[in-house]
Recover the amino acids of this structure.
């Protein structure tokens, strides 16, 4: 699986383009288009001749979905999010103005809803939806054979905020306990920052260490 990351939005969110190969005509998916200005993403997609088939979103905060309609208008693809984040999605433009001080249009409703245990397919690769609430009610991690898109649940060395509207420290603790089951060799692509591995996080991430210690 090929992965290309673009740091977009004033909050430096990670927008990913993924495909089995970055060859002309290959099917691809865009994950978390979090800004209205997606020119670098479009230049890469059109320059490689990829066929975009879907938009998957790890959660519905504005810095992860603000560009969904721009993406849909360009490629005519469905946008997916977990159903529990539908209220967050509906208010993303309001949060954008509150955090950044500039107005933004409302994002049209999602086309499809994810649920825990669903399977998303891209070519021969499959991703299982893990519902990992805490940062937001509908946060998910998309777990493939060798890679995970963890959204704002898990970062390199830390975790997502739990002091926002709709966040829950208790839910985050349960979600982190659940992902301790991930294999050490899984490569983790987070919603902000650099990639990491589960082995590194199990060893260095104090939040995971604390939970593992309590469970042992």
């Amino acid at each position: 699986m090929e992965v290309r990351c673009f740091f977009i939005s004033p909050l430096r969110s990670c927008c990913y383009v993924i495909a089995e190969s970055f060859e002309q005509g290959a099917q691809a998916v865009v994950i978390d288009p979090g800004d209205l200005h997606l020119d670098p993403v479009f230049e890469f997609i059109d320059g490689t001749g990829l066929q975009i088939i879907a938009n998957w979103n790890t959660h519905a905060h504005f810095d992860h979905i603000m560009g969904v309609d721009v993406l849909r208008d360009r490629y005519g693809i469905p946008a997916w999010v977990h159903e529990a984040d539908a209220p967050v999605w509906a208010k993303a433009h309001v949060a954008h103005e509150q955090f950044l001080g500039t107005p933004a249009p409302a994002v049209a409703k999602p086309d499809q809803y994810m649920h825990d245990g669903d399977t998303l397919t891209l070519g021969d690769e499959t991703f299982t939806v893990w519902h990992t609430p805490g940062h937001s009610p509908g946060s998910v991690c998309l777990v493939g054979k060798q890679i995970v898109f963890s959204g704002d649940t898990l970062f390199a060395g830390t975790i997502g905020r739990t002091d926002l509207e709709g966040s829950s420290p208790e839910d985050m603790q349960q979600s982190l306990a659940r992902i301790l089951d991930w294999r050490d060799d899984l490569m983790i692509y987070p919603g902000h920052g650099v990639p990491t591995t589960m082995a590194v996080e199990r060893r260095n991430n104090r939040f995971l260490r604390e939970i593992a210690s309590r469970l042992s």
